[in-house]
Amino acid sequence: MIVSERGYVRSVPAILWPAVALAALVLALLAIGVWEGSMRRHGLKAGDLDDGDSHWVVERRKVDSGPRDQIVLIGDSRILFDSNLDEWQRLTGRRPIQLAMEGTNGAPVLENLANDEHFAGLAVVGMAPTSYFRDAAGLHDKALAYLRDESPSQRLGHLIDLQLQTVFAFLDHDYALFPLIERHHYRERTGYDAGSAPYFDVWKLRETGPARQYRMWSRLITDPYLQEHGRLAWHDFDGKVFEDAQIAKVIAKSKGWVAKIRGRGGEVAFLRPPSSGRVIVNEDRRVGRVRTWDPLLRATGSYGFHFRDDPVTAAMQCPEWSHLTASDAAMFTRIYVAALKAHVPWLEIHAASGAPHEHPDRG
What we know:
- The protein has about 375 residues and is of the alpha/beta class.
- About 45% of the residues lie in helices and about 10% in strands.
- It has a domain at about 65-135 and about 205-350: SGNH hydrolase (Rossmann fold, 3-Layer(aba) Sandwich).
- The strands form three sheets. The chain has a five-stranded parallel beta sheet with strand order 4-3-5-8-9, sandwiched between helices.
- The termini are far apart.
């Protein structure tokens, strides 16, 4: 019996509480097992890690805790999906730090590195041109602030979450229960508006390994429904052509950031990964190469690898118009790293001894 402060009397049932606790535990484990099995049948895997600001700052801190001449990849999701870190290490003896972010402009990170006196390495700046030449940072605009403000409890929570995700596949945030409910295209729901309704949000596009190694989710390649849904994200096909003044402003800022990094003995190179379908048509119309890419390289005096300059990469197709499959990403990495080694003296000077110097096999 329990008596409250106000005199209310509550009777505690005379039951076997250890048995109740055991039954509750068994039911919970059964429910977790059923949900885990269901998610694995959907193609999810344990060890496929989430990604976010906490994951990004772990990699960003490696820049300042390691040697000054590190190689860093920055930009939006294309260099994130389309770069294979194992291939980088095999070809150069150096494993880059992956600092690119989905849906996020690489320019603020380039500025951050330019203002970091410790960094005197190579920054490879990947770009989707509609992202790099805009003002808005994008989806992860708070990442740099999180680098400064992350609390001890947030760090601990991140470490615990990583450990759990190596065991359970159902912890994938893209397939959590409530997002699945919100995104379901119920027949009775009408008035869907691309860009606002959850159904048109980006669903699962990738698998993520340690150190933020992205690769396209295999189901996106083999499942026509998911592939078509992945294209729903790229709906801004009626946007205005970028103004000359905006392009000139971004190029001028980039020139200053590159000069700062070079002043400390570092280097900057640019990378334009493939896009296809309606996405590349939109990019050519709004931020064409002759107005953006070519003037950027001239102004900064930098080497840049554009996918259209190589017959193999020019022929690559993106299943959802913006990112390469894992196998194509490995090949793309081999080709662009070989080009960087041939045209960026910094990379050859700082390559680890014993790294292969021959032209990589493109197959």
